[in-house]
């Protein structure tokens, strides 16, 4: 026989006898229900925590997905530029070959001109042509002719050499540009691989959190059902014992306790500009993005990117300095000249530090002291990294720039 039936039978007997005895099991049920309500509260908080983590992870996953798309486009653009540069280099090589052929042909012409002034076959110097004159008048005519030929030949040769030098310089420039593009493509592909790995890890974690959320919600629902059953038992007992309407109040309480929870999401709040900001303000500005950002080539240069934690290295530095009212460039090449060069032995927090990655000074960050710097790294987004050992120690090129603040 169930506990509920026993309670009802006891109540019926006591009412029938006109007795006013108390019901022993009611207090036990009330205590059990109170304990369950506490368990529901704790379990609900657990669910909210998981839902908040899930919402934040989904938001980060969206940023990663957007970064993958943006970097894919950048890789495609870089590949197109590489193809164009290769075509231009091939064209220049063809033009240089034509010039070299033209120089050879003109050299042959010069030889023929010299031969035309000699009395017999074979090459002679211009002086031999002059000495072979038969009279003073012939000498003058030959001298004038030789002078014109020499001047014309000199002009032709100089022009040819100038054209060839110009083409060679252009070719060298294109080859250097091609090398930079190929280096950039290699780094972008490396970044993409890291971001894809991050996406895979995020997807796995999202799946785990969803499973955890499902399990915790099931536990909450089970506890709520148990609590509702106890509430119904209390209401029935109270109605029989007292004939009151307390059951409706209990039901109301039960309904309130059974309300569902809502997940919370976090957004990155904008950082107000503080024109009187210190070095500490500069460094701390990026802390809110640690673990809450993603590396995007060309990111950090508009309000959307900043709000969603999308930065590349120079874009992050540009934004960080803007929070303390200091304007610096948004590319590594411009940041090299944003202040005065200082030695590594005099390096201080707030200084810019540069690294040779896909090219010289290809990466930049803000020194925070203790051999560490903060920046937007391709594998982590905004993070503090160690430049005293490992990868960044190998890539650090010794360039340190102090920006006037």
Descriptive overview:
The protein is of the alpha+beta class and 405 residues long. 65% of the residues lie in helices and 9% in strands. The chain has ten helices and eight strands. The strands form two sheets. Strands 3-8-4-5-6-7 form a six-stranded antiparallel β-sheet. The protein has a two-stranded parallel ribbon with strand order 1-2. Helix 4 packs antiparallel against helix 5. It is elongated, with a radius of gyration of 42 Å.
Can you summarize this structure?
The protein is of the alpha+beta class.
- Please count the beta strands (DSSP E, at least 2 residues each): 8
Q: How much beta, percentage-wise?
A: 5-15%
Name the helix and strand elements from N-terminus to C-terminus, one letter apiece: HHHHHHEHEHHEEEEEHE
Given helix and strand content, the structural type is alpha+beta
Low-pLDDT parts are 1-24, 117-124, 243-266
Distance between the termini: 83 Å
């Amino acid at each position: 026989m169930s506990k509920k039936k026993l309670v009802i039978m006891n109540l019926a007997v006591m009412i029938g006898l006109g007795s006013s005895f108390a019901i022993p099991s009611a207090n036990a049920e009330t205590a059990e229900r109170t304990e369950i309500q506490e368990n529901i509260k704790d379990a609900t908080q657990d669910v909210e925590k998981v839902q908040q983590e899930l919402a934040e992870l989904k938001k980060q996953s969206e940023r990663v997905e957007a970064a993958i798309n943006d970097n894919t486009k950048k890789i495609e653009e870089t590949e197109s530029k590489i193809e164009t540069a290769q075509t231009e280099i091939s064209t220049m090589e063809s033009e240089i070959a034509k010039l070299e052929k033209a120089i050879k042909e003109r050299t042959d012409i010069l030889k023929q001109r010299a031969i035309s002034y000699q009395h017999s076959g074979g090459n002679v110097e211009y002086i031999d042509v002059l000495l072979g004159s038969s009279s003073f008048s012939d000498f003058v005519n030959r001298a004038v002719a030789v002078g014109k030929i020499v001047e014309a030949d000199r002009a032709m040769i100089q022009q040819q050499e100038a054209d060839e030098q110009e083409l060679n310089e252009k070719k060298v420039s294109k080859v250097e540009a091609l090398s930079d593009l190929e280096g950039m493509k290699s780094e972008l592909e490396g970044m993409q691989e890291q971001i894809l790995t991050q996406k895979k890890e995020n997807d796995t974690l999202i799946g785990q959190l969803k499973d955890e959320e499902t399990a915790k919600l099931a536990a909450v629902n089970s506890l709520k059902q148990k609590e509702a059953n106890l509430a119904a038992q209390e209401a029935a007992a109270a109605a029989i014992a007292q004939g009151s309407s307390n059951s409706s109040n209990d039901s109301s309480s039960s309904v309130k306790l059974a309300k569902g929870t809502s997940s919370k999401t976090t957004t990155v709040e904008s950082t107000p500009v503080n024109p009187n900001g210190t070095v500490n303000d500069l460094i701390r500005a990026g802390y809110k993005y640690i673990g809450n950002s993603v590396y995007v080539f060309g990111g950090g240069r508009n309000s959307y990117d900043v709000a969603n934690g999308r930065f590349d290295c120079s874009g992050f530095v540009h934004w960080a300095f803007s929070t303390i009212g200091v304007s610096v460039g948004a590319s590594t090449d411009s940041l090299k000249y944003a202040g005065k060069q200082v030695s590594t032995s005099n390096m201080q927090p707030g200084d810019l530090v540069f690294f040779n990655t896909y090219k010289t000074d290809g990466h930049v960050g803000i020194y925070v002291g203790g051999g560490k710097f903060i920046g937007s790294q391709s594998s982590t987004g905004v993070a503090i990294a160690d430049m005293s050992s490992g990868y960044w120690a190998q890539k650090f090129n010794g360039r340190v720039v102090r920006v006037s603040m």
